[in-house]
Each structure stands twice: as C-alpha cells, then as structure tokens.
Amino acid sequence: MRGKNLILVFVVYLMIGGLTACNGIDTGKQVPMKEKKNVAMDYKVNKTETEWMAQLGENAFEVLRKKGTERPFTSEYETFWDSGVYICKGCGEELFSSATKFDAGCGWPSFYQSIDKSKVKEILDNSHGMGRVEVVCSNCGGHLGHVFNDGYNQPTGLRYCINGLSLGFIKKQ
Predict the structure, then answer these.
(1) What is the pLDDT of residue 9?
(2) Minimal CA–CA distance to 150: which of 115, 117, 102?
(3) What is the domain count for the chain?
(4) Of residues 22, 106, 137, 161, which has the active-site annotation?
(5) What's the pTM?
(6) Which residue ranges of the chain lie beneath pLDDT 50?
(7) What is the pLDDT of residue 44?
(8) Whole-number Å distance between alpha carbons of 118 and 80
(9) Which one of 72, 131, 132, 135 has the largest count of C-beta atoms within 10 Å of its C-beta?
(10) Is 18 helix (H, G, I), strand (E, B) or coil?
C-alpha cells in the first residue's frame, strides 16, 4: 500500500510540475509592462464570434478568442525547427522568427523575442491566482500565450511561451 501512495504522490508532483512549467513562477525578475491592465482595445481585425469560430475551428478559437491554453507537448510547433516565420492564425500577422525559437522544455513553442515589439501587446494577467504577462497579437487581439522574464534564454532573458494553436507558419529559404 505504501508503494502505491508513493507512486500517487509522484504522479501528482509530475502533473503539477507540467502545469506550472510555463506559469511564471516568481523568480524575482519583472517583465516590463506595455499595458497595465486588460482593457478593451481597438484592433485592425475585428470579427464576430461566429466569424472567428468559422475561420479558426473549435480548438484554435478556444485559445485565440477565449484565452485558453493547449495541453503541453501537444503542439505541432513545439518540436518543429524549420526556418521561417510564425504568424498569427487569426490574422496572418508575422509574430516570431524561427531564429529566435528555442527548446524551453516546457511543452509549448518558446521564443526569446518577437519579430518586432509592435507586433505583440503585453497585458498584465492576474487570472488563476498568478501574476503573469499575457501576450496578444497587436493586429487582432488574439491570445497567444504568456511571456516570462526568467532568464531562460539569452540574449533577452525572456521566454515567450506561445500556444501552437494560435500560430501558423510560413517556410522561408
């Protein structure tokens, strides 16, 4: 019986570790805020929920429009290393270069910077009892993921932990 209890404790420990791998555990470092709070913004691309659902499908809609999170280690882009540009699945905005992608081991595609700071907005996110910084597409407002200043990768020390369901990819030679 004791062995089963130890296994159960270990499994719960692994599950919590997987869920917190990209949750922004406080490392004493702060990510600079571009937006102080999540306020309604005008975006260049605006559609109804019905239009978004028809374009994106249920899973991508849940992430991009409802601020969902895909399960770790399920993204087609998590272990994808082709050269090119990652775009917003909602509007096609170029967001991240494959040159800034790295293996953070957290289960989601990770980048150390965006193509251009104007391509993403960073918004304080206090949901789920955590202080994190949400990353959204500056063109359509689609939820992409979160950014953490955990010193994970150089040269920026930032880790943009992005849902693969929010991305598309354009291969470049």
Answers:
(1) 44
(2) 102
(3) 1
(4) 161
(5) 0.77
(6) 6, 8-21, 23-40
(7) 92
(8) 25
(9) 135
(10) helix
